[in-house]
Amino acid sequence: MALGQDGGMPVVQSVRVGQHPDHTRFVMEVSDNVGFKVTTLAEPYRVVVDFPELGWQLPEGFNPRMYGALSGFRYGLFKTGTSRIVLDANAPVKIKQTLMLPPRGQVRNWRFVMDLVPTDHSSFMALMKPAVYPDQVASTPTPTVVENRAHVQQARVPAILPPSKPAKKSKHVVVIDAGHGGVDPGARGVSGAYEKHITLAIARQLRDVLQQTGRYKVVLTRDRDVFIPLRERTAIARRAGADLFLSLHADTLRDKSVRGASVYTLSERASSKEAQALAERENKADLIAGVDLSSTTDDLSFILLDMAQRDTKNQSSRFAETLVKDISLSGHVLRNPHRFAGFAVLKAPDVPAVLIELGFLSNKHDERALRSKKHRAKLAEAIKTSINRYFNRVEEANRL
Q1: What range defines the domain where residue 20 resides?
Q2: Which is it for the CA torsion 391, 394, 398, 399, positive or negative?
Q3: What are phi and psi of 13, to 5 degrees?
């Protein structure tokens, strides 16, 4: 990663957007000169800028006022060594110039400056350059609009190896997936809390209580604030030889009075319109992080909900029913808390999997509870109890 002048990580001090007569200007102040690479994506229109790994001195929930063609801003770690910002555009834009300006006068920081001007759709598509998945092989070209190579190091990224389960394990393998992360913050709570921080906190607490039992090998899909593609989350579980996969989330709703946890299992038909809408939002995580989905193959497209997957689905549903009962003893749950939808992250054909909605960050009571370490500990204990019961049944069945 790039290092600052004092040997530490370069730090982003501020971000702002300004509207000028003929262009929209994006400015990011950073403590040191850093390399950058700019790409553009369509459907929807986005401008993506990659930097070496950065620190961020921005308040939680920070969202600068947008002007001109820009409508949204996200930032965070895209993969180890690479930080990313994603700018949403409400119309096609052209990058007029990008600059890295040194400190001058009263300004003590370096400034990354990018000017955007309106263009038409056909011109945007002609100039569009794709961003790639973090696991894409280095032999795949990564074209750029503009690149500044200060402190940039190129590294080969290995492709994902075919998953294989160990023939014999002394412990049950449980994979815990903390939803969202890095440049994909997930939902934002009523007080500004981000879903990605809530899910990581409870994933760590759940890992700790499971490891204390001595029965489980626990794998986290992420143990820091970093973006993980949906297909890689599933691949991590399969490479680990997972016996159970849990994906943790905390969404928002327009109706702020709705509160309570729920558990989802995979189905090609959603149990309700709300479940369908939730799955559609969650399945856009890669798009939100600035990934060009049109340039990648869908590793999950071959999976059909057929006879070969029926046993996995049945095991998932049995665990979900147990989980609902135990979670209901630790807090609120929704009416009909076991629900079904086509979540991409649940589509490993050979790993029983559930997605747990821990509560709604749009509800002040749920958000306050999920930010509480004490409440998260209660949830972790309830989930642990369900996992113990599930594997008790598995072990009993294996003895027959």
Answers
A1: 11-148
A2: positive
A3: -95, -35
Contacts of residue 334, defined as CB under 8 A and 6 or more positions apart, other chains included, come to 258, 260, 261, 262
Per-residue model confidence as pLDDT tens digits over 151-182: 444 333 333 344 445 455 789 999 999 999 99
pLDDT, greater one: 271 or 132: 271
Measure the CA–CA gap between 106 and 108, rounded to whole angstroms. Answer: 6
Do 128 and 176 reside in the same domain of the chain? no
Q: What pLDDT digit, counting tens, does each position of 286-309 carry?
A: 888 988 776 554 444 444 444 446
Q: Please report, for residues 19, 73, 134, 317, the alpha-carbon distance to residue 340 in angstroms, rounded to integers and kept in the order given.
A: 45, 31, 30, 10
Positive/negative CA dihedral, 269, 273, 275, 280:
positive
Q: What's the CATH number where 23 sits?
A: 2.60.40.3500
DSSP3 helix / strand / coil % (the chain, rounded to 5): 30, 30, 40
Please give the structure tokens belonging to residue 368.
Answer: 């306050």
Neighbouring-strand partners of residue 264: 339, 355
Indicate whether 302 belongs to any domain.
yes
